[in-house]
Design a protein that fits this description.
Number of strands: 11
Largest sheet: 5 strands, antiparallel
Distance between the termini: 55 Å
Number of domains: 3
Structural class: alpha+beta
Radius of gyration: 34 Å
């Protein structure tokens, strides 16, 4: 049996030395030689009849080296298991290790050393003692009315009037970048879009009244659109949102079709299409369901915001010491592609945060008996499927056989299961931590909450 010694060489950084004697590897070496001899194909000899001495002379040294290193590895792994050492990554072989010292003609005792980084003991910050704000977005009649109107338009009947008559007309348009003289910019390709008249700036809309197919305008985004619509249109047109000159770029906008959506009537048939599976019969029931849906959405956003703050409190206020020199050395030499010392230094802060978060998550999961069950994974797969379908699958097709077939197929995908397991476990950990938060409740408008999100995101960057 290999002899193993261990000494501390730094903060959470130990050196483990494995000493093997010929009793640990010699019989394995001789057995490996015999196996090699049985299968060797050497000209002039029948298979399995090659003299052992010739095999040893020709191939003995690499086989010997391999068997010694196997004995060393076994001694190291047995020690780590028996001592129950909690280490980061894998042990790093010391630079002093010299495989060239191994000589099959003079078998003896060999020493190989390894560095290990030890996981620290720590206490997770008590989030119940930290200050948090629990936001509750107030749902207004205007928000409910706007959502109902959006659904009526979405499920309405499209018509094609000759001219634009109001803000609810739909314009199919083609944009072509032009210069100051109205000539197409060289290489500029037309970009098509579909816009409601009300998406244009209020001061620009009067110019659109009476417009018909084929009419053209020379516009720039700064004057034709307000800021909110301008932002997403810049992206649609392939412009750089960080370019201060993007909004002053001129375009020839040609109307290719005028449309108008006749809103769906507020009746039972519409309720079933807009909110399938809810058995809504009256306008009042529909309105309450829409309010609940909007509230659910913003409650989820508020929860996401709180959990984002929880993440930073847990990470920033949980004190964890790490074996920094070892981890930097591991960054350089422990992966498939070695890194320079400069690269390891640059990557270390982000790497250390990832390690800290993994340690915190593992500890919270273990201490609070958080489990991920098979039904959790199946529910996750179903939820992901319906999200791909734009939420349309939750009604009549939910129990169709092909849905279960899809879920069963995903359960056989190892990468999907591992990713889903990690996500569900992390979410359950957050959900548990959120129950411990004793912060004050604060009712806010959508605008106030959105500003809070923007402020928080800006602060984190």
């Amino acid at each position: 049996m290999a002899t193993v010694t261990r000494e501390n060489i730094g903060l959470l950084n130990d050196k483990i030395t494995v000493t093997v004697s010929k009793e640990d590897y010699l019989s394995s070496f001789e057995k490996a030689l015999k196996n090699y001899s049985k299968n060797a194909n050497i000209p002039g000899f029948r298979k399995g009849m090659v003299p052992a001495g010739m095999i040893k002379k020709m191939h003995g040294q690499p086989i010997f080296t391999d068997e010694v290193l196997k004995a060393v590895e076994k001694g190291l792994m047995d020690y780590l298991t028996n001592e129950k050492l909690e280490i980061f990554a894998q042990p790093l072989p010391s630079n002093e290790n010299d495989p060239s010292q191994l000589d099959m003609n003079q078998p003896g005792d060999y020493n190989f050393s390894f560095e290990v980084g030890l996981k620290p003991e720590f206490e997770v910050v008590d989030v119940s003692k930290e200050k948090f704000t629990k936001y509750k977005v107030t749902i207004t009649e205007e928000m409910i009315s706007d959502e109902i109107d959006r659904l009526r338009l979405r499920h309405g009947n499209m018509t094609e009037p000759e001219t634009v008559t109001g803000d609810d007309n739909v314009l199919n348009v083609s944009f072509v970048a032009v210069d100051e003289n109205g000539n197409a910019v060289e290489g500029a390709a037309p970009k098509d879009n579909s816009l409601l008249v009300k998406y244009f700036g209020e001061s620009f809309r009067p110019q659109l009244m009476g417009v018909k197919n084929g009419d053209s305008f020379t516009i720039d985004l700064a004057t034709a659109f307000d800021e909110k619509e301008r932002e997403w249109l810049i992206g649609d047109l392939g412009l750089d949102k960080n370019d201060p000159n993007a909004t002053s770029q001129k375009f020839k906008m040609t109307v290719t079709k005028v449309g108008f959506v006749e809103r769906a009537e507020l009746n039972e048939a519409f309720f079933q299409v807009a909110l399938p599976g809810k058995e809504i019969k009256t306008e009042e029931e529909f309105k309450k369901a829409i309010e609940a849906s909007i509230q659910e959405y913003w409650d989820k956003q508020a929860s996401n915001h709180l959990q984002h703050e929880l993440y930073h409190v847990l990470l920033d206020k949980t004190s964890i010491e790490l074996p920094e020199p070892f981890l930097k050395k591991w960054l350089q030499n422990g992966s498939e592609q070695p890194k320079t010392a400069e690269q390891a230094e640059e990557e270390y802060p982000s790497f250390a945060n990832q390690l800290k978060w993994t340690l915190i998550t593992d500890k919270l999961v273990r201490e609070n008996n958080i489990e991920v069950k098979p039904e959790d994974l199946q529910a996750f797969a179903k939820e992901q499927l319906f999200s791909y379908m734009g939420g349309m699958g939750m009604g009549a097709i939910e129990e169709q056989p092909w849905v279960n077939d899809y879920i069963n197929k995903m359960m056989q995908d190892r990468r999907f299961v591992e990713d889903a397991y990690h996500r569900i476990q992390t979410q359950k950990m957050f959900d548990h931590s959120e129950t411990l938060v004793t912060g004050k409740d604060k009712k806010v408008s959508v605008e106030e909450f959105t500003k809070e999100l923007e402020k928080h995101q800006h602060h984190q960057h």
